[in-house]
Write a structure and sequence with these properties.
This protein is an alpha/beta fold. It is built from twelve helices and nine strands. The strands form two sheets. It has a five-stranded parallel β-sheet. A four-stranded parallel β-sheet has the order 2-1-3-4, with helices on both faces. The structure holds phosphoric acid mono(formamide)ester and norvaline.
Length: about 300
Amino acid sequence: MDLKHYLQFTDLSAGEYAYLFERAALIKRKFKGYEKHHTLADRTLAMIFEKASTRTRVSFEAGMYQLGGSVVHLTTGDSQLGRAEPIDDSAKVISRMVDLVMIRTYGQDKIEQFARHSRVPVINGLTNEFHPCQILADIFTFIEHRGSIAGKTVAWVGDGNNMANTWLQAAELLDFTVHVSTPGGYEVDQAVAGIRSGASYKVFKNPMDACRGADLVTTDVWTSMGYEAENEARKKAFADWCVDSDMMRAAKPDALFMHCLPAHRGEEVEADVIDGPQSVVWDEAENRMHAQKALMEYLLLGRR
Ligand code: CP
Ligand code: NVA
């Protein structure tokens, strides 16, 4: 099989996503039925974390064990990665010993550099620019609840961050529309998002307008990891970008609410929304594992 990395959402085609969503559903059914699914027996995943994580760590680690494989967990603090060993050297060494690498880091350039020197597939577990595994799980979750996302409208309320960029990539590839509302100074940048045109998204000054008629309303923390120094300025700038029940009422009556988590109730979302009947955040979090199991299997074995 050709070496295939998953560094951005656009690294797979619409056809490959259709396959992955079906495969994730099958893998989830088998998991719920306590049925063994050891397609990656004897394979090893290295997970490299340069930023904190709960969901990404647990979903990849539990998922790999459930596929019959094993994992190695590395952080900057307990490996030579934090002591300035060149990325190229780390990639060459680690990828000689494992079958797959997942990396959570800062700049997208770092993961791309690692991938250029890796002999095995590299998966983006979040960078400053993108979070493709999360959107993979989010769209899988949308499909479970509402069917195909093609032609639908997703309202993005909040920061023009890694999640927003990845939603824009997904919209262009899978034919849906994103309504984006960010405070001034925190807009999405088409060049950073790596999309071909502005046809699949619309920008709204007022977050309420972005939510109008949406099939899915979604948001994220005001301050992403790595931007903590801007926390106070962001708290002021984002005060009106809190998803509340009025915004949910502006969306379609059957609109879903998603948040990649961790969430800050009373900041980017009110408790009655995230803990309310339209919220699917717990399914969304669980689906990280099922979707990533399908992804890891696909990168190593292709279609089954
Ligand atoms: N959503 C997400 O990636 O969560 P963690 O930061 O806990 O991995
Ligand atoms: N945008 C957030 C997502 C956390 C899962 C961050 O990068 O910190």
